[in-house]
Amino acid sequence: MRVLVTGASGFVGGRLAPALVEAGHEVRAMTRRPERYTGAGTPVPGDVHDGASLVAAMEGCTAAYYLVHSLGDAEFAERDAEAARTFAKAAAEAGVERIVYLGGLGDDADDLSEHLRSRREVERLLGEGGVPVTVLRAGIVVGHGGISWELTRQLVEHLPAMITPRWVRTRTQPIAVADVIRYLVGVLDAPGTTGRTFEIGGPEVLEYAEMLRRVAAIEGRTLWLVPVPLLSPRLSSRWLSLVTDVDVRTGRNLIDSMSNEVVVRDDSIRALVPFEPLDYDEAVLAALGDRARSLREKRS
Question: Are β-strands 42-45 and 161-164 bridged in parallel, bridged antiparallel, or unpaired?
Fold first, then answer.
């Protein structure tokens, strides 16, 4: 089928487009600068805030993947809501039969962070145009270039000892980016996934502290964690900006979400898209391997 992939140059979209092509689908890779696009599929111009450009990009598409967010923007929740409304309306106008959205895990009964509340709002708004939405909710996605993974890797590699706030004791269920892609591709061929919300994760539930220690062990590094329970999210984000290349605003939004437990409660997707996800160590090794290959290619 013909499908539209938004964010086709991004962390997830850049992997999804070639996987869809390999699966036999015709891919339209939406980007604001199609002349610079070198990835899989046919580049088409489009902007999630421009309805006319979306309708043109979606022409003839059976499904459309929504993979964009404005996390680094000061008004990210408002911008993401506006974009979701525009995308939903354009999808209905273009005759798209299904939208597929990658959202975030988190219990609705919890006091969700602004970031996770925004992800929920986007889910709702994408469905307002009447097009069925398949939602995949994930926690930490482990893969080269992903913001959450880069925070983990850079903290371990830059600091042999670190002060740690309470969020390092929060439980999460990390998933390899390759497995996220397998789910995103798999739902297209599983009619039972249309209009439903699914939770996806790897096979292990881990605290952030354990994730940091496991990365350190894989890289042969010594890591000391010194708990400082009163370290605020604002101070944490400024601290992260000093030792990683993640900007303060994005870091703050991510850290706010790290107080929320993000664990799979319903694994019904496993029966519809069956495979065995990578464990955390395998996901880390794959991410480190991709980074090493990327660095070699840049030097050559």
Answer: unpaired
